[in-house]
Amino acid sequence: MTDARIEAAARVLEGMFHFSGIYSAKDVASKMLEGIDKIETKQHDPINHPSHYTTHPSGIECIQITEHMGFNLGNAIKYIWRADLKGNALEDLEKAAWYIQRELQKRRSIAAEGGGNG
Length: 118
What we know:
Elements: H1 3-16, H2 25-43, H3 51-54, H4 62-66, H5 71-82, H6 89-112
């Protein structure tokens, strides 16, 4: 966090409140901005925890489920999971269907070779 940012926030706070005692406007501004930064970082982490995979009402992140599945089924679940949360829902559902069809083809091939129910 930059000193300029803290100074600017402190000036705003000094205009709104009278500070006397233990904490200065600069102390309060620093803590306030630190808290805001933590909230913003937590809410928007497109690499480690993208919101379209972490906003399910259950509180479960998509990867917690899909990492226990094979590639095709995991991807199908991923696209279903995010269908209403990111971009084009129809496209995501079509991608899910594509992965399901691919998994069906694989399992039918295994079953045809005598490998059980696929």
